[in-house]
Specification:
By secondary structure, the protein is mostly helical. Helix content is 38%, strand content 6%. It has one domain (2-85): Rossmann fold (3-Layer(aba) Sandwich), CATH 3.40.50.920. The N and C termini lie far apart (33 Å).
Length: 95
């Protein structure tokens, strides 16, 4: 199970004890470093591309896909680069 929150990971982790399978969570456990929501989501790995990588990593841990698929996705989507989302349309006023 992969749970994703635009808030702290503690939010989805509150139900982990009642989920009868493996548990993985992604969340935004900090603040104050990015100029856009898209950059913040990339930094905390809760954007769409990071969710794909998280799912591949969880599947690899279960032996359902080869771990190289997650490694390839990290490189393809530039997961460790918050500037990789520069072209993402921003939310809010004037977006």
């Amino acid at each position: 199970m992969l749970a994703v929150s635009d808030f702290m990971r503690a939010v989805p982790d509150q139900i982990a004890q009642w989920v009868p399978t493996d548990w993985h969570s992604l969340g935004t456990d900090g603040f104050g470093f990015a100029d856009t929501r898209a950059a913040a989501r990339r930094f905390f790995h809760v954007d769409a591309e990071s969710i794909v990588v998280g799912a591949l990593e969880a599947l690899a841990q279960r032996g359902e896909v080869d771990a190289s698929r997650a490694v390839d996705a990290v490189a393809k989507y530039r997961i460790d680069d918050p500037t990789a989302v520069a072209g993402v349309k921003q939310e809010g006023a004037g977006a």
